[in-house]
Amino acid sequence: MSTLVAERLTLAYDKRVVVDGLDLVVPTGRVTAVVGPNGCGKSTLLRGLSRLLPPTEGQVLLDGEVIGSLPTKEVARRLGLLPQQPTVPEGITVAELVERGRHPHHGLFRQWSHDDEVVVAAALEMTELVELARVPVDSLSGGQRQRAWIAMALAQRTPVLLLDEPTSFLDIAHQIDVLELVRDLNAREGTTVVMVLHDLAMAARYADHLVAMCGGEIVAEGAPSEIVTPRVIESVFGIAASVVTDPTTGDPVVIPHRRKRDPS
């Protein structure tokens, strides 16, 4: 299994520091959710972990090697990234999109093979997209389109997968579909997953490990039962809340308190 570690990681846009001196050891073979308020550095952290954004200080280690020093294809064989709102090439079908996940495994002497066909078929099956394989991606619903992108990431067959807000703009049913798919992938393949989520309840239900960020730093991390507490919620999100336990699943459930506003 691959390991992913950030050491004293500082990330900035121009001279504006967004992530400041952050240390993180991603739990191998587990599902980690990064949570926090808007603008706290969650998506920037994923960009740094995937080497899309080079650090101004510190480093990211993939399997003990500085990720920025590795060849691009080598990184793509070990680590997959699904960014926010990826751009769909015009007219591309679901199958063609998923097939692109195999590109990192091809080279001068390694062309498309029966093994690639098997991997793509398995990704379509796992995401329940077999019947939509020849349908243009831009004609799909939001939930179907997100599943198509995840299928492409599955076809890439990387031991580490980073997902930046995979449930954005989806209704509750499609959010659950996507997160159940992520859990299933982790259970079947042992894939290490790091995903940015806005919904704290969903993060607590579907992740093994939570990383709570605020102001470009990690405020707390650990099991959902340790992190989803009134104290952490107030320090990270600035709101008062009660936390109860779901009697069916045992997961923590957040009940925000109403914020009183000055009538004037």
TrEMBL record:
Its localization reads: Cell membrane
In terms of Gene3D superfamilies, this protein maps to: P-loop containing nucleotide triphosphate hydrolases
Q: Name one GO molecular function term.
A: ATP hydrolysis activity
Span of domain ABC transporter: 4-240
Q: Keyword Transport, does the record have it?
A: yes
Pfam families, sorted:
ABC_tran
Q: Which CDD domains match?
A: ABC_Iron-Siderophores_B12_Hemin
Please indicate if the UniProt record lists Nucleotide-binding as a keyword.
yes
Query: What are the record's GO terms for cellular component?
Result: plasma membrane
Major localization listed first in the record, in broad terms: membrane
Swiss-Prot/TrEMBL GO biological process terms: iron ion transport
Keyword list, A-Z: ATP-binding, Cell membrane, Ion transport, Iron, Iron transport, Membrane, Nucleotide-binding, Transport
Membrane topology term reads:
Peripheral membrane protein
Give the PANTHER family listed for this entry.
IRON(3+)-HYDROXAMATE IMPORT ATP-BINDING PROTEIN FHUC
Q: Please identify the protein, giving its name as recorded.
A: Iron-dicitrate ABC transporter ATP-binding protein
